[in-house]
């Protein structure tokens, strides 16, 4: 099993992280605990130790499922969770303020039935809260023993720098990691975020390496997503905003990249998911890659990517077809999250 230290810390995590946004049924496109538990068990039994969740994933159900699944081997698991997203209708029920973060941390600890969080992450930037307040609050959690390390998620390069500077100014704990969307479909972090993380010794935790399943070959050009896929499940609710968002993902460019991934996979005798994962895993600065399987079969299809090394010519082909592209508009403002779930 391959482990690495996360950023400028002594925390050792597996190079693959189990993302649990699909665990729970509150959002309408996840899986129940009976389906989630075998995936968690298989991941941990294989020696991986890094599990990522968030307080808003399926309205807290994900954290509850994770907490029950790791009972009895909590010491061997690095639990990462996040806070920011709405937990109620009140003005202080979201964000990175001292009041909300304190409530959110205690709620996460209760849901997972644990005394501490190994990696506590800001789910996104909060423009309404001074970053000094956020960093002081997170540092107080570390000093109290309720959090071991802190990280960010979905920050821009400048926001990451601001957070690190704020930690220095208040004499607090710096961020050791940044979760960022990264795949052959979304390479925009290469321009600024990756270089900043390298200079500041912040480990990149890459989420959505399969592009929502597009790079795993789950979707076909000109065809509606199958009902058993994530996009198909999401569209079953009939919300126009969801259909628009799915359409923005299944673009000609993205499907062309997915087709090339499929060709490389066929030549190497492996799965498209394994090829897409292997490419992200070996990118500079990437400490760990978050996978988000909905089924045990999907998890098994990804496993080869945990150790696969792509030939140079294959890497060159994939990087040529996936050159930098504009960031798509998600159109998900009316759904229960404010950034695409991960």
- CATH fold-type name: TIM Barrel
Describe the global form.
globular
Question: Low-confidence segments, ≥5 residues, pLDDT <50?
Answer: 328-341
Number of domains: 1
**Gyration radius over CA:** 19 Å
Q: Report how far apart the termini are.
A: 24 Å
Strand % is 5-15%
CATH architecture: Alpha-Beta Barrel
* Largest sheet: number of strands, sense, barrel closure: 8 strands, parallel, barrel
> Please, what is the CATH homologous superfamily?
NADP-dependent oxidoreductase domain
Helix and strand sequence: EEEHEHEHEHEHEHEHHHHEHH
CATH class: Alpha Beta
| Structural class label | alpha/beta
Q: What's the number of helices?
A: 12
Would you report the number of β strands?
A: 10
Strand order of the largest sheet: 3-4-5-6-7-8-9-10
Helicity level: 25-40%
Could you report the average pLDDT, rounded to the nearest whole number? 90
